[in-house]
Amino acid sequence: MSLIFNCRGPVVGVYSQELAPKPELIGKPRRAGCGAVLNKLIDLVPADGKDHEVKCPVCKAVSRIKKTPEDKEPA
Ligand SMILES: [Zn+2]
Predict the structure, then answer these.
(1) Which of 33, 48, 56, 70 has the fewest CB atoms within 10 Å distance of its CB?
(2) What is the pLDDT, as a whole number, of residue 75?
(3) Residue 4 alpha carbon to ligand 1 centre in Å
(4) Does residue 54 fall inside a structural domain?
(5) Which pLDDT band, with edges at 50, 70 and 90, does 3 fall under?
(6) Which of 28, 63, 70 is nearest to 42 (CA)?
């Protein structure tokens, strides 16, 4: 598995009807968009089933990452 995790940027508000690209996004947090690849930081998160915070080095937005032991790639 080699997923790429892109930072979605800081929350800048909530989707209004005019701004939402999809109707299901209305009322959901709107993010500025950043695109920084967070894989290196996420790789450092231990697979202990607990929530960890990963701070984007570019925009400082914090993402919550939880890895369960099963997510770990086989050695
Ligand atoms: Zn970012």
Answers:
(1) 70
(2) 59
(3) 14
(4) yes
(5) confident
(6) 63
Q: Please report where in the chains the tokens 């790429």 appear, as a residue.
A: 4
- 24 CA distance to ligand 1 centroid (A)? 24
pLDDT of residue 1: 55
Question: Is 2 a domain residue?
Answer: no
57 C-alpha vs ligand 1 centroid, how far in Å? 7
Give strand pairing partners of 65: 52
CA 58 – ligand 1 centroid, Å: 5
What is the number of structural domains in the chain? 1
pLDDT for residue 73: 61
Task: Give the H/E segment covering residue 12.
Answer: strand 11-14
pLDDT digits (tens, 9 = 90+) for 13-71: 999 999 999 999 999 999 999 999 999 999 999 999 999 999 999 999 998 999 998 76
Q: Which domain holds residue 65?
A: 11-70
Q: Does residue 5 lie within any of the structural domains?
A: no
